Amino acid sequence: MNPRRLPNLTYAGRKAVNGLMLAATALSAALAVAALTAVLGYVAVNGVSALNLGFFTQLPTPVGVPGGGIANAIVGSLIVVGLATLFALPIGLGAGIYLSEYGHNAFGDLVRFLADVLSGVPSIVMGIFAYTLIVARQSHFSALSAGFALGVMMLPAITRTTEEMLRLVPDSLREGALALGLPRWRTTVSMVLPTVAGGVITGGVLAIGRVAGETAPLLFTAFGNPFWSVNINQPIATLPHMLFTYAISPYDDWRAKAWGTALVLAALVLLASLLARHFGRQRHVG
Amino acid sequence: MAATILALIGLLVYELYAGARLGLARYGLSFLVGQSWDPVFQRFGALPAIYGTVVSSLLALAIAGPLGLLAAIFLAELAPARLEAPLSFLIELLASIPSVVYGLWGLYVLAAILRQPVGRLLHINLGFLPVFSCTPLGVGMLAAVAILAIMILPYVTAVARDVLRAVPNAQREAMLALGATRWETIWRAVVPYARSGIVGGLMLGLGRAVGETMAVTMVIGNRPDVSACVFNPAYTLASLIANEFTEATYPLYVSALIELGLILFGVTLVLNAVARLLVWRAGRGMERGHV
């Protein structure tokens, strides 16, 4: 460290600066928490008044028609996120296993770096990617293309969690299995993987929670659909996209529904994050 | 499987390039400095969107950076364990709220605050400055900056906190033994030691701000103008794509939008690569005991 001159302050002056800055740090932390409270508080208060049983079980109604709900968007979000998981989980697991067990070389470093790059790609760019790759070729919007876009976004998180979890497994476990004459793949599948299953699931749930709230990649892939649809080859309604549509609409009853949808979406995403945290903690304790 | 990631990135770059080819051939580099975005007359220039993206993200970082660093110092150095765990948890929750929910809040709560009390006060008292000279509308650049600052705050805080925690205690003890106050210890011995990691965290935050789409689209007002006044509506690369992509009616239009995506991809790529390198180097340096 370079020797630096301390400012010419009296002891009392230094104490005052100390107190002032320490208070500023506490204030900053409090500000961050206040922002969270403000956002979640508004969503909870405004959202609750839009909720009723019909909100969860009915289809959206046109403007001015009372009632109506977001049932199709809830199911649509589940379908799209499910497709994304189906796509990302096998590839991410495989890549994570490769990186941890065999990837201590230049190729492994390259993949690690690219996974980081991929996690920084803006979600809207992912939407364009899925659009030009799938939607433009098929000439129609689909749940499938949306699942692909979200899947690519989940991939780096799943890969890196899997790798980091596997790294924690002591080598003696691998050596023991190999000494018993198990082949390398069998060691990985039967000995190493089961010990980290909990951690990998935690990482997966976190990744799902993160993409479930993504809207930008869905704008021109899932596109939205006011009707009931479970066909993965057709446009589909999703919670974040429906929230966006309702939020920027000029109608009061749609705006009320936007708050309701926001509450449902935020609750689902926060629940996923809490669950993952809970299981993650249990694993460490137990 | 690992090769799939390689292939996906390759495909992503190729698809973006192929999609933007029409626009690239037509405009070349002049796309970057073209000042008007007018699809009706087939004029496409990216400058207003680039300007909006740069200004909104840098201003957001200028707000969230110091706040995040101070909050991280509080969490890593000062808060008792009983307070630290729940606070960290709450700040991480802030990071998991979907951006469209931030957008909704920004549009109906934040924009209203910025129009009436805050915006009017600034406009009346400081209206002689060009930055505050126009009428506050609520939605506009200032709203985008505010919502972005809130959104990247948890990222900056979390990275800075982790890096500060990794600073060896010998740094603190030596400084305290010299008679330094708590703050002098933190500011002169701990923070400089963690500098490159903190800068990396700031750049990760900047990368997120640059790529953030939904919340910004909902509050920035969406007008492709370059204006010095922070109350005026503006546009960012991401929000321009989000708004117009499904309405693009002819191939050149689509291609110009994809070209915006290509610019966005390039910028975030560089930001993230440098940031990761800094954070990674900071971690490695500390393991060895020097920076």
Describe the structure.
The complex is a heterodimer of chains A (286) and B (291). In chain A, α3 packs antiparallel against α8, α6 (143-168) packs across α8 and α9 packs antiparallel against α10. Helix content of chain A is 74%, strand content 0%. The longest helix of chain A is centred in the N-terminal third of the chain and has 38 residues, at 11-48. Chain A has helices at residues 11-48, 53-57, 71-102, 106-119, 123-138, 143-168, 171-179, 184-212, 239-247, 252-285. Chain A has ten helices and no strands. By secondary structure, chain B is mostly helical. Chain B has a single domain (15-288), classed as Orthogonal Bundle (MetI-like fold). Chain B has a two-stranded antiparallel sheet. Chain B is globular, with a radius of gyration of 22 Å. The model of chain B has no long low-confidence stretch (mean pLDDT 89). Classes of the chains: A mainly alpha (286), B mainly alpha (291).
- Taken as a percent bin, the fraction of beta residues of chain B is under 5%
* Low-confidence segments of chain A: none
- Name the helix and strand elements of chain A from N-terminus to C-terminus, one letter apiece: HHHHHHHHHH
State Rg of chain A.
24 Å
Number of domains of chain A: 1
CATH-level-2 architecture of chain B = Orthogonal Bundle
CATH homologous superfamily of chain B - what is it?
MetI-like
Order of helices and strands of chain B: HHEEHHHHHHHHHH
Mean pLDDT of chain B: 89
Q: Please, how many domains of chain B?
A: 1
Strand content of chain A: under 5%
CATH topology of chain B: MetI-like fold
Termini Cα gap of chain A: 42 Å
- Order of adjacent strands in the largest pleated sheet of chain B: 1-2
CATH class categorisation of chain B: Mainly Alpha
Looking at the structure, what is the overall shape of chain A?
Answer: globular
Short description:
Chain A has 286 residues and is mainly alpha-helical.
